[in-house]
Amino acid sequence: MNEYEKRKEAIVRYTNGEKITAIVRSLHKTRQWFYNWLARFNDRNDDSWYLGYSTAPKIKPTKVNDFIEQQVLRIRQDLDDQHFAQTGAIAIQYEFNRRGLQAPPVWTINRIIARSGLNKQSSKRKQCKDYPELFIHTHQMDLVGPRYIKGDGRFYSVNIIDTMNHSCYVKPIRVKSSEEILPAVVDFWQTHGLADALQMDNELAFRGSNRYPRSFGSVIRFALSQGVAPVFIPIKEPWRNGMIEKFNHTFDKRFLRCQTFSNFTHLTEASKKFAVFHNANHRYSSQDHKTPDEMNTNGLPPKLYHGNIHLQKRIPLETGCVYFIRFIRSDLLLRLPTESFKLKNELKYSYVVAEVNLDNQCLAIRQNNEIIQQFEYRTPVDW
User: Fold this and answer.
1) 89-98 and 66-81 helices cross at what angle (nearest 10)?
2) Quick check: 351 and 326 in contact, CB under 8 A?
3) Which of 102, 133, 275, 381 is the most interior residue, by most CB within 10 Å?
């Protein structure tokens, strides 16, 4: 017998003359419960008296009024129409203030966005606990493409981001080669300064050539000449370059997919405007919701590259280290771009740092900053 049936049975038995004490005892209820439903029965003349009344408050003082909700949704739509702009709660709140309006709290904006079905949950990959973090100040670089301009052919985009302040740089190129990529790195370091490391995936144009084993291309040569360490993330693990990968998503969604480019020149000019807009307007929670430009004004001035790479026919390779981060599987093989090395069994199923030392001409295998193995590694250098 469910609760509704108990209420109806109690009233039926009472109207048949049964005593209240016997009724509540057999139903395992209190006399107060019986009198409450007897009053409901007497007050209502319909057959739904046993269903009770809603206990929800008639007035919700914390509910956002419709006017504020419409303002939030309108500003969200305006930001979305700008293509380049961020559309989260923080960006909406800043837009309220910019327009001279009273901004609701961030959590209120989030509730309105969620209630309207405009929020999406992003999946996050789990980071392995023993993954090495080599440098604090890093520039992450990646290639986007190939993409196509209708009537004007294929292009790629060199994307770079500073992990300290999220300053970005984008440069469309026609051919995926180090000759096209290197000027982008130079431009970024001339305007945004040098970092401790340049982190990349294992793209051939970044590292050199398969034709000449143990050789390094102009991108690595230039980085080492400026005291910047080239770091290559594990093969097939793009999330290790998570910041640039997330930026690539924004770049694709807010720039490439939201407009049509008439030709390569139009694309190049528009990409410059996108980078400027991003650095001036995009806010990141990891830096107290400041834009990249605001972060740049607070810290020490960066160390800029003042040279001219176009005057150098060949960049000398003389000193420094190149780092490859790799996950060692059951075969115990460390796989570098052109060859493999057999490692110790204790390194199975763990990440290691393979450090190519040009000064010592050796390959050091490190784990937790400790050298576990060493191999002779003769590299062509310009001594």
Assistant:
1) 100
2) yes
3) 275
